[in-house]
């Protein structure tokens, strides 16, 4: 770990300004990911701006019937919130599927969105990695890539985004609110938050240096039943090989529509509008689920150790959609 | 002087006498001892190539960093004896040089050592050390180097490399029913909760090292040999050990480097390996390919058993895991062939990992036996019973005790085996397929030479001393139980002091010999004290040293073949859509002689079983052949079973007292629980799905492809 200085920001704008002023500064909230990366020498900020004590830790109902979630709401608190459990069980389930109890108690909503990949070549400073050291190459190509991407990857980087929460938020059409160093605020849809690795894997989001996530806004929940299904190598405390966030609106055995997002398969939560359009387009639910699975995995490409994910994702999508629709497959 | 006779404590499910200390932080582990003088902190800099030499090291940045006291590399490290040939008879006691030359023999080998005023300063400075390598092409990848396989002189514990009873090839050719299957077991790691750590301090020319060692006497010898100082000048203390599993049998870099640092700086130095470093600096269970061939009559009698193993070893230090050794004694076939071959790769050498040999070997053998039972349409419990033997097929002597059949029968009854799905894919529960599996357990029973002193004070309190260690198993407690029972005093009157090289020498914790050996020595000492007390009415201090001879000097280990036995029963659910395997319940039945403490022994069995589940389903260290490092070298990606993976794991002992084993009739339990446990799970996966995965761990992708 490289020595660093530390300050505690007094408000969001001041925090954003403090980081924006120094190229070697970074925000720290729960620290569940950043501190690990600092110990490993992967992240080497010289200055940390602590945003964990900002008054951004409340969940409020918004005027449109949605929820307004402060960026410093802990993952455990968000998962346990009665409004979240009632109207957005998808989000609650996704959160509880992630990490461990201790980590969820420390991890923040904003930090969860910004966590770095668990690619083991990224976290090992002795192996080449374009994300950590641009231009050095991607060791996961031709290496051990069981947990890597099958969608949206590039030869520069095949890492996945590890968040479960973000997958649910993507399916729920969440909007991310930020403040920049010069005090400007903006709202970014989840679908627009993450950058394609082909554009340079070292920058994972569209956020500018010093831009702080202050909140996540959830619109009113879409109609239908919500199911989050995470497939992993052990029953808890493992990142998703594949996860599926599904919302299916079905009545009397007929599928009317729904949402579908995937985790563990790409550099971002993967949502394909063509896949969602198939929901309700076929008269037989099973046919529409199969069509949705095929559409969601269109263009998928394996890299050896993760080839199995393509079929696994399709199987998990079909099953999860069926579960959400209440029809047994 | 007479003592009160209280209830017999041996065998009782007594809580650990050190339990309260441990849960309240009162039991110092290696890195936690507080010395009078504040220590300096050492951090190891590991090599980042698999083979070659260090061409240049730039330590200037580290040396100039705040708080740095010392940067040691091969250029300024003290002179040490060479490591020597890859084979050594007393390998845990031999000198083990670090930073001794410019060679890099495997990824992660220490190339520099940084000591500073604080841990943080040392770690920051360690990151500033830049090393320039002259890399050579390493030999990596077991399968691609199989042609270089060779037969070692012996395998671990001095066992024979190859054995052949009867004419296996003829039996196999004659069939009539055969199985020929090749299994692959992954490289696995100890992953003790407490990483390897040491604090060294010098007083003149004498060094004391507080460390986490399974065997204090060997660590003492190894350090004395490395430092080239007399044995009497070295004291090793290891009162509490946060798990060893074989990884702490030998001295490692942290001990040597702490001693160097403390001597150079004239103050205590403490060092811990990081979790990542533990993956490349303390040994591992080597990756292995195992070919098992069985032949049997149509009614299920084995006519031939063959078990051939090819495994990774290292040109630096040879380690041949005794993977096929249990096959020599488990079933009574007229022809049994076993063979071990090593393939040298540019990696660290293998080491014993809980049940070395038995754990990976039974994974293959007991899967193959299940394959045979399935082929024959026989109940795998009954087929195992049919092939039981009371004579060791290799040694041609009777077993001292062998209750495999009792374990199978009693375990089957308690588990509800008769309700099992008879054929694969027969039972469902919602979207999952349900399967039952069984496997046998076998593990040699060892006895090591051990000494202990027992002292009874005037106030009738008792003190037990031996350099034996408690690696989390319950040694403190069982030795107190034995002393209390023999002397007829309450348990709380007994104080047990362990893990100090000033105490009488034990064989340490390892090989499951610790309890029987140390308890026998304590029993002997207590008997001597008691005899002396009976001779006098004086109220004074009584003290005696007791001992037990090792098995090599004990006739009953020549006249009888000594093993522990057991049977595992597992129920799994396999998701038909995703291939996810989840254990539902598991039961182990074990025969291990007299049980000294029903609670700590059961805990050990359950711990072993859980590791068996973990090794069958999760654990795999992936070595990248381009670099030579363990890619998934942390506990986030090297998966060990989490709590949610091991619901409802239970174990019980069948009643046994083995009077051939030792005066207590007790046998080792530390490793028995893992033996065969993984195979029971694998067989349950087959029973559920009809898919036989022969490449461990059985991950969901392998089930889906099948």
Helices, strands, pairings?
The complex is a heterodimer of chains A (329) and B (706).
Chain A: E1 5-8, H1 12-21, E2 25-28, H2 34-39, E3 47-50, E4 59-61, E5 67-70, H3 75-80, H4 82-87, H5 89-97, H6 101-106, H7 109-114, H8 165-171, E6 175-179, E7 185-189, E8 212-218, E9 225-231, E10 242-251, E11 254-263, E12 270-271, H9 273-278, H10 285-296, H11 308-325
Parallel strand pairs in A: 1-3, 2-3
Antiparallel strand pairs in A: 4-5, 5-8, 6-7, 6-8, 9-10, 10-11, 11-12
Chain B: H1 19-23, E1 40-46, E2 52-58, H2 60-64, E3 68-73, E4 103-104, E5 110-116, H3 119-126, E6 130-135, E7 154-155, E8 159-160, E9 163-165, H4 168-174, E10 177-185, E11 197-203, E12 206-211, H5 216-227, E13 234-237, H6 253-265, E14 269-272, H7 275-281, E15 288-296, E16 302-313, E17 336-344, H8 358-376, H9 380-386, H10 404-415, E18 427-429, E19 432-444, E20 450-456, E21 462-465, H11 475-487, E22 494-497, H12 514-534, E23 542-548, H13 556-559, E24 563-575, E25 581-591, H14 598-617, E26 649-653, H15 677-689, H16 700-705
Parallel strand pairs in B: 1-14, 12-13, 16-17, 21-22, 25-26
Antiparallel strand pairs in B: 1-5, 2-4, 2-6, 3-5, 7-8, 9-17, 10-15, 11-12, 11-14, 15-16, 18-19, 19-24, 20-21, 20-23, 24-25
Helix pairs in contact in B: 8-15, 11-12, 14-15
Descriptive notes:
- The complex is a heterodimer of chains A (329) and B (706).
- Chain A is built from 11 helices and 12 strands.
- Chain A has a 5-stranded antiparallel beta sheet. Chain A has a 4-stranded antiparallel beta sheet with strand order 9-10-11-12, sandwiched between helices.
- The longest helix of chain A is centred in the C-terminal third of the chain and has 18 residues, at 308-325.
- Chain A is globular.
- Chain A is α+β, with helices and mostly antiparallel strands.
- Chain A is 28% helix and 20% strand.
- With 706 residues, chain B is an alpha+beta fold.
- Chain B folds into 3 domains: 19-28 and 448-553, Aldehyde oxidase/xanthine dehydrogenase, molybdopterin binding domain (Aldehyde Oxidoreductase, domain 4), CATH 3.30.365.10; 33-136 and 190-281, Aldehyde Oxidoreductase, domain 4 (2-Layer Sandwich); 145-189 and 284-445 and 558-705, Aldehyde oxidase/xanthine dehydrogenase, molybdopterin binding domain (Aldehyde Oxidoreductase, domain 4, 2-Layer Sandwich).
- Chain B has a 7-stranded mixed beta sheet with strand order 3-5-1-14-11-12-13. In chain B, strands 9-17-16-15-10 form a 5-stranded mixed beta sheet, sandwiched between helices. A 5-stranded mixed beta sheet of chain B has the order 18-19-24-25-26, with helices on both faces.
- The longest helix of chain B has 21 residues, at 514-534.
- Classes of the chains: A alpha+beta (329), B alpha+beta (706).
- Chain A binds chain B through residues 1-3, 39-41, 118, 120-121, 123-124, 126-127, 139, 142-144, 147, 231-239, 241, 308, 311-312, 315-316, 318-319, 329, and chain B through 48, 66, 120, 123-124, 127, 276, 431, 577-580, 582, 617-618, 622, 624, 626-627, 629, 631-634, 636-637, 639, 641-645, 699-701, 704-705.
- Chain A: This is Molybdopterin dehydrogenase.
- Chain A: Residues 1-223 form the FAD-binding PCMH-type domain.
- Chain A: Its EC number is 1.17.1.4.
- Chain A: It is an enzyme of class 1 (oxidoreductase).
- Chain A: GO terms for molecular function: FAD binding; xanthine dehydrogenase activity.
- Chain B: InterPro entries: Ald_Oxase/Xan_DH_a/b, Ald_Oxase/Xan_DH_a/b_sf, Ald_Oxase/xanthine_DH-like, AldOxase/xan_DH_MoCoBD1, AldOxase/xan_DH_MoCoBD2, AldOxase/xan_DH_Mopterin-bd_sf.
């Amino acid at each position: 770990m490289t020595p660093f200085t530390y300050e505690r920001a007094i408000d969001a704008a001041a925090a954003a300004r403090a980081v924006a002023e120094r190229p070697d500064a970074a925000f720290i909230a729960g620290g569940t990911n950043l501190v690990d990366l600092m110990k490993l020498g992967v992240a080497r900020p010289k200055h940390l701006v602590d945003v964990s004590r900002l008054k951004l830790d409340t969940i409020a109902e918004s005027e449109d019937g949605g929820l307004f979630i402060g960026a410093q709401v802990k993952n455990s608190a968000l998962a346990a919130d009665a409004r979240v459990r009632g109207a957005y069980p998808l989000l609650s389930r996704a959160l509880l599927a992630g990490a461990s109890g201790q980590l969820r108690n420390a991890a923040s909503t904003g930090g969860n969105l910004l966590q770095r990949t668990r690619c083991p070549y990224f976290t090992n400073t002795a192996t080449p990695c374009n994300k950590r050291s641009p231009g050095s190459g991607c060791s996961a190509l031709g290496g051990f890539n069981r947990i890597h991407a099958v969608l949206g990857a590039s030869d520069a980087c095949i890492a996945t985004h590890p968040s479960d929460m973000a997958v649910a938020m993507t399916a729920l059409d969440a909007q991310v609110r930020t403040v920049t160093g010069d005090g400007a605020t903006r709202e970014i849809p989840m679908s627009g938050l993450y950058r394609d690795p082909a554009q340079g894997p070292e920058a994972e989001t569209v956020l500018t240096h010093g831009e702080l996530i202050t909140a996540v806004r959830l619109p009113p929940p879409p109609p239908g039943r919500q199911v989050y299904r995470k497939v992993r190598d052990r029953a808890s405390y493992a990142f998703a090989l594949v996860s599926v966030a599904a919302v299916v609106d079905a009545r009397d055995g007929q599928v009317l529509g729904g949402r579908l997002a995937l985790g563990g398969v790409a550099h971002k939560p993967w949502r394909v509008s063509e896949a969602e359009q198939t929901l309700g387009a076929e008269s037989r639910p099973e046919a529409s689920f199969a069509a949705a699975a095929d559409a969601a995995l269109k263009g998928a490409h394996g890299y050896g150790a993760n080839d199995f994910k393509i079929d696994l994702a399709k199987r998990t999508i079909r099953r999860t959609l069926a579960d959400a629709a209440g029809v047994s497959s | 002087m007479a003592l009160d006779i209280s209830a017999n404590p041996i065998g009782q499910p007594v809580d650990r006498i050190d339990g309260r200390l441990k849960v309240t932080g009162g039991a110092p582990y290696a890195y936690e001892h507080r010395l009078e003088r504040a220590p300096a902190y050492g951090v190891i800099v590991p090599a980042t190539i698999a083979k070659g030499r260090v061409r240049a090291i730039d330590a200037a940045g580290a040396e100039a960093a705040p708080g740095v006291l010392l940067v040691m590399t091969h250029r300024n490290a003290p002179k040490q004896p060479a490591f020597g040939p890859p084979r050594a008879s007393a390998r845990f006691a031999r000198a083990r040089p670090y930073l001794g030359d410019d060679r890099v023999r495997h990824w992660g080998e220490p190339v520099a050592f940084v000591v500073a005023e604080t841990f943080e300063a040392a770690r920051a400075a360690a990151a500033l050390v830049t090393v320039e390598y002259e890399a050579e092409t390493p030999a990596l990848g077991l399968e691609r180097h199989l042609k270089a396989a060779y037969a070692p002189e012996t395998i671990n514990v001095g066992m024979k490399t190859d054995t052949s009873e009867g004419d296996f090839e003829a039996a196999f050719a004659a069939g009539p029913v055969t199985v020929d299957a090749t299994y692959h077991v992954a490289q696995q790691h100890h992953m003790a909760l407490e990483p390897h750590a040491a604090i060294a301090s010098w007083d003149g020319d004498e060094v004391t090292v507080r460390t986490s060692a399974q065997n204090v006497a060997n660590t003492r010898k190894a350090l004395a040999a490395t430092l080239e100082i007399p044995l009497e000048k070295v004291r090793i203390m290891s009162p509490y050990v946060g798990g060893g599993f074989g990884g702490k049998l030998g001295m490692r870099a942290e001990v040597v480097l702490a001693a160097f640092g403390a001597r150079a700086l004239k103050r205590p130095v403490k060092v811990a390996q990081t979790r990542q470093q533990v993956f490349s600096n303390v040994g591992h269970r080597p990756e292995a390919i195992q070919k098992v061939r069985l032949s049997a009559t149509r009614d299920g009698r084995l006519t031939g058993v063959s078990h051939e193993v090819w495994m990774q070893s290292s040109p630096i230090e040879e380690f041949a895991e005794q993977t096929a050794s249990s096959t020599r004694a488990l079933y009574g076939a007229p022809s049994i062939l076993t063979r071990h071959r090593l393939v040298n790769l540019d990696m660290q050498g293998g080491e014993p990992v809980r049940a070395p040999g038995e754990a990976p070997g039974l994974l293959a053998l007991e899967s193959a036996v299940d394959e045979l039972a399935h082929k024959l349409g026989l109940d795998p419990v009954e087929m195992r019973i049919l092939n039981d033997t009371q004579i060791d097929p290799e040694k041609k002597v009777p077993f001292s005790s062998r209750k495999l059949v009792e374990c199978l029968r009693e375990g089957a009854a308690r588990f509800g085996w008769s309700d099992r799905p008879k054929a694969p894919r027969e039972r469902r529960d919602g979207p999952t397929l349900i399967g039952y599996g069984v496997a046998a357990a076998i593990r040699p029973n060892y006895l090591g030479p051990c000494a202990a002193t027992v002292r009874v004070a005037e106030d009738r309190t008792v003190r037990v001393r031996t350099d034996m260690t408690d690696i989390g198993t319950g040694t403190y407690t069982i030795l107190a139980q034995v002393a209390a029972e023999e002397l007829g005093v309450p348990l709380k009157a007994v104080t047990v002091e362990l893990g100090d090289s000033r105490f009488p020498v034990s064989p340490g914790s390892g090989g499951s010999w610790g309890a029987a050996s140390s308890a026998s020595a304590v029993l002997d000492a207590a008997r001597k004290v008691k005899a002396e007390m009976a001779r006098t009415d004086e109220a004074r201090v009584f003290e005696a040293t007791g001992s037990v001879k090792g098995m090599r000097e004990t006739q009953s280990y020549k006249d009888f073949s000594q093993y522990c036995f057991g049977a595992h029963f597992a129920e799994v659910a396999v998701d038909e859509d995703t291939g996810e395997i989840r254990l539902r319940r598991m039961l182990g039945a074990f025969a291990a002689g007299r049980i000294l403490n029903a609670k700590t022994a059961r805990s050990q069995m359950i711990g072993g079983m859980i590791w068996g589940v973990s090794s069958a389903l999760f654990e795999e260290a992936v070595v990248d052949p381009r670099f030579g490092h363990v890619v998934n070298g942390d506990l986030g990606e090297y998966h060990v079973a989490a709590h949610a993976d091991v619901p409802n794991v239970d174990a019980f002992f069948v009643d046994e007292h083995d009077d051939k084993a030792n005066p207590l009739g007790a046998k080792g339990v530390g490793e028995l629980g893992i033996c065969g446990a993984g195979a029971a799970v694998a067989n349950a996966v087959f029973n559920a799905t009809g898919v036989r995965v022969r490449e461990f761990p059985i991950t969901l992708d392998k089930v889906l492809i099948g």
